[in-house]
Structures are given as C-alpha cells and as structure tokens.
From TrEMBL:
Region (Disordered): 1-34, 56-109
Protein name: 60S ribosomal protein L24
Organism: Cotesia typhae
Bias type Basic and acidic residues, positions: 56-72
Domain of life of the native organism: Eukaryota
Length: 109
C-alpha cells in the first residue's frame, strides 16, 4: 500500500509535459561599484585609498600634533582669563539632634 501511495505522489510531482514548460532559472550576478559618501566626493575617497601608508601616517601624526597644540593653547587662555578662586572658609558643624529609635520588643534575637 505504501509503495502505491509513493508511486502516486511521484507521478503527480513529475507530470508529463511539465519539464518542457519549466525553463532554467537565471541567476542575477551582483555588481560592485563605488559610491561617494556625504561630505566627500568619490575622487577624494579614491585618492585617500591610493595614498601610501607612510604619507597617511605622517598626515595623521601632524593632525594629532596640531590638535594637541590647539588644546594646550585653549587651556592656557582659559587659565589666564579665569579669576583666582577664594579659599572656602571652614564652618563649624552644628550637632545634629537625632531621636532615639523605639526599643525593640520580642525578647532575644
């Protein structure tokens, strides 16, 4: 009985004339392409990519040095303009009045 059922399923699946109707599916190949990013044109990006690593490293170090100098100058200017802070005077601490907690009831714990 099981063989008959399988044979029926097989015949339904592979009907006569169905093979000719189906065509081979074509796969779509993806294409790689470069795009510009907002704020930088494609030519700028390609120029940076094709740059030699030594040049890029030197540029990075120069930018870091310039940023550090700017930060140092800003700190010095801020220090010069800020008025000296007066030293805070110590205040006498007032004794806090605390209520005694209620006695515990219930014997030994």
């Amino acid at each position: 009985m099981a063989k008959l059922w399988l044979k029926l399923m097989e015949r339904r699946k592979h009907k006569k004339g169905q093979e000719e109707e189906q065509t081979k599916r074509r796969t779509r190949r993806t294409q790689k392409f470069n795009r510009a990013i907002v704020g930088a044109s494609l030519s700028d990006i390609l120029a940076k990519r094709n740059m030699k690593p030594e040049i890029r490293k030197a540029q990075r170090e120069q930018a870091v040095k310039a940023a550090k100098e700017q930060k140092k100058a800003a700190k010095a200017a801020k220090k010069a303009t800020a008025p000296p802070k007066p030293k805070p005077t110590k205040k006498d601490k007032a004794a806090k009045v605390t209520q005694k907690s209620a006695p515990r009831v219930g014997g030994k714990r």
